[in-house]
Fold this sequence. Notes:
Blueprint: E1 4-13, H1 20-31, E2 37-41, E3 56-57, H2 62-75, E4 80-88, H3 95-102, H4 111-126, H5 130-152, E5 185-194, H6 195-201, E6 209-218, H7 227-232, H8 234-247, H9 251-256, E7 260-263, H10 270-278, H11 288-294, H12 302-305, H13 313-327, E8 332-339, E9 344-352
Parallel strand pairs: 2-3, 2-4, 7-8
Antiparallel strand pairs: 1-5, 1-6, 4-5, 6-9, 8-9
Helix pairs in contact: 5-11
Amino acid sequence: MTRALIIAAVRTLDSLGSQQHCLDLEARIRAQGLDIHELVIEPLSTDWHSPEPEDHFRSGCAPIEALARAHALIGEGVQAVLIRGEDLIKSGYSREERHRLMAVYGTDYPLTQAYTDLAENYLARQNLDAERFRELAQCLFENYSTTYLDRHGGDGNTPELPGAAWFEPVTALFRGVDCANPMVDFSGRLLICSEALVNALKVPQSERIEIRGVGLRRLAGDGRDHIDEIAGYNHLRSAYVECCTMADINFAQRFRAGDALLETYTCFPVVPMAFLQVSGLIDVLDEMPDFLARHSVTITGGMNLARGAWNNPALNGLISMHHRLQQGDEHIGLVHGNGGLGYRQGVALLVKI
């Protein structure tokens, strides 16, 4: 099967950045008389409970689902696929609109409470108490912060970390800094092409990143009534194993050896905790502090600091991973997506060729 190669990954955040490189490549492809198959990450304004049209994707897992679709399309003979997502969370909605649209489980069951209930179920399975969970959540935040400051401090400016109010509890388990912060205007594009088209376009070898593996799992339901099944995270384990098997890569081994990068989904601490366990990077949660002291589990600083516009954080992660693999010494990058309360899970492995 032909390889599916990402040749452009661009974004604008709060109107900063440029998408021209990708737009130019799209124009060149269309000038050859070829169509570009478009896949759309839906914005917050789309009704969460409405049917998903074909080639439209919704939830925090949506970009990984779209990547799997792109990979399959290239294998079927499509020459070019564009994944695009845009959500003007900061400027496109009033505060009241944002709150209403984000109440996907109803106004009486906010996301923060839903994730608290999920985390409590998960903790019971791990035989850990709430105090230990909060300690581990702080270790995660310190890990994100180190990465974020390293990434954004190179230009001589000191990036701002959240103010004191963000460190106050918002539920029994979470502080503001432990939760996703989607207050950003985001627009991103990912252009995936067949190897034959990439060669015809004479794209430099250094700009080619292969989609080597994608694993997806979706439970039958989401929300309060499905917490017990979600908290077992067997579906996340299955998605991870499927991805690594497809790619023929032992990710945990390559990551520990320093040849791989990771962008975990960090909407609430329970999600990266579960990923670190099911991936085999740690065996028990008590190993987390030592592991986090030695390894970065995001390349962006996570959704908590790098932010992400509703359904687009994993798209932002894929774009960031494309650039890091181009620029760094590592050869492998893994991006995780988590949809809803966790009923959708997706894992993608990108490889420098």
